[in-house]
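Chapter summary example: a protein plus 2-acetamido-2-deoxy-beta-D-glucopyranose.
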Amino acid sequence: MMSRGVRHLMTVVLLSVLLLLFYLSLSTEPLSPLLRASPHSPSILNAQHVRQETDGKSNRYVSSTSKAKDSIKRAADDAATIKELRESYLFPPSTEPYNLEEPSNINPSMGQAQAIDYIFKAKRDGFYLECGGLDGEVRSNTLFFERYRGWRGLVIEADPANFAIMKTKHRRAYTSPTCLATTPYPSKVVFAQNSNRGHIYNVLTYDDAPAIGLVNVQCFPLYSYLLALNTTTVDYFSLDVEGAEYKVLETIPWDKLDIKTLSVEYFHDAEGKVAIKQLLESKGYDVYMEVTDPNNLANDFIFVKRELMR
Ligand SMILES: *[C@@H]1O[C@H](CO)[C@@H](O)[C@H](O)[C@H]1NC(C)=O
């Protein structure tokens, strides 16, 4: 038989526990939407959450563009676009000695660079554009041209973790911690980091790699980068962006540029391989060959401007 005092005490304790639980349920933030987000529900993303998620491991290559700028759709060739790109997003070529993991590997490309060098008959002093650049060395399609053919170029890599490693390799190319836009104007995206399978988060790919990290990344149209570098001629454009290839190709003003050859990975695009081929064929290109690899480390078309093959 419990005394009245003990029962009273137990009631007070019970009520306190209930109150505490109620308080905790109010004060605990619901699970961040990012942690629950499925790869194809970007609508629940909000930029504020992304910044919170990434601030802990942010580095100086993470874009800090203000929200206000996102709403302005500046043309790819707008002077303000070019100025912003030049001043904030383009790093000049390194003048330091290379710091490569495997300096004796003359051509780490999976076959794309070998095909392009063959097409150009070992041409010297060309200009390349590579996106994504990964760490600037592993399976790089452009390092060979830089080291052994004296080409100049630009390497774009959206994942700040990969970009930071690339910077340590001292590429003699312009580098940019950004992404090729899928829009004909600069746009900011959420980028899903995943080593060599990172991609723009809301681009529907048919085999989406899970996001290991999510970061805000500033994208510019391809045309803007070339104008920022005072060129409209590209000898070789290596495009490998894990699913956004078709959409990037759609933004290119082909009549204003002279892109002579391309390698385009077709494996991850929701639009499909045939659509990529047809798009480039309609722009005056022919498939020269396909470069594939048994472990899917390459699934690329090599395109050559039709007039060059005559
Ligand atoms: C491009 O031209 C501008 C203006 O003449 C110049 O300031 C800039 O250094 C040039 N950039 C490159 C990469 O050639």
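Key point: Residues 229-230 surround 2-acetamido-2-deoxy-beta-D-glucopyranose (CB under 6 Å).
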